[in-house]
Amino acid sequence: MPVYRLNKKEISFPNPTLARSDGLLAIGGDLSVERLLLAYTHGIFPWYTPGEEILWWCPKKRFVIFPNEIHISHSMKKYAKKHDLQIQLNRDFADTMHRCRIKREQKEGTWISDEMEEAYYRLYQAGYAVGVEALEDGELAGGLYGVSIGKCFFGESMFSEKENGSKAALIGLSQLLEEKRFLLIDCQFYTEHLESMGGRYLAWREFDKMLQEGTGRKKC
Predict the structure, then answer these.
(1) In a 3-state reduction of DSSP, which class is residue 115?
(2) What is the Cα–Cα distance from 108 to 129, expressed in whole angstroms?
(3) Is 150 in contact with 160 (CB distance < 8 Å)?
(4) Cα separation of 15 and 24, whole Å?
(5) Taking the model in full, what pTM does it have?
(6) How far is it between the farthest Cα atoms of the chain?
(7) What is the mean pLDDT of each run of 10 residues along the chain (220 residues)?
(8) Where are the alpha helices (DSSP H) in the chain?
(9) b/e string for 85-115 if b means 16 or more Cβ within 10 A?
(10) Distance CA 99, CA 118 (A)
């Protein structure tokens, strides 16, 4: 499959089913709010090395978590009983995203560049990007950020300041989304950590149908 080059002057994407087997669909374009919203409602997201051209991905097998299927391990239940845990939304979106960046830079490197931070802050200002943080006994334990459109949440990255911080944030988010009848959390790619939290693969056709229902999207 070819990789499609996007025109910065035109907000559009090729059909997501045209993505390569590794999920790469297109290159170029920009990170405007309009393009990002169009991308996410069609299961497309940006992921690229800072300083290089924007790469747009759409894996045909998606790894998702259904909010009502979040797995809370025995050890996490014990942890929750031992501590006073609180979940807060958008305490400081820019700080939450930057913490995700710093934690990854210290370990394996990150795709979260200055350009990405600025783009997702614009999404936050437009009411679509969300920062989630877990407090353990009043202290910041961990968090995550993502994009919320309609009844679908698209997870981007997590961080931990304490041992179970990111887990607590994801569990808390899932419980909030279940209350609000969200359809899914798109995790994009598989990780053992997300699998242990209840993540599973979803066939493209089923995932795409849920996106259409959950976001009320228009065609590319």
Answers:
(1) helix
(2) 24
(3) no
(4) 12
(5) 0.94
(6) 54
(7) 87 95 96 97 96 94 97 95 96 96 77 95 98 97 98 97 95 97 96 95 96 83
(8) 33-41, 74-82, 93-107, 114-125, 165-179, 192-196, 204-215
(9) bebbeeeebeebbbbbbebbeeeeebebeee
(10) 14
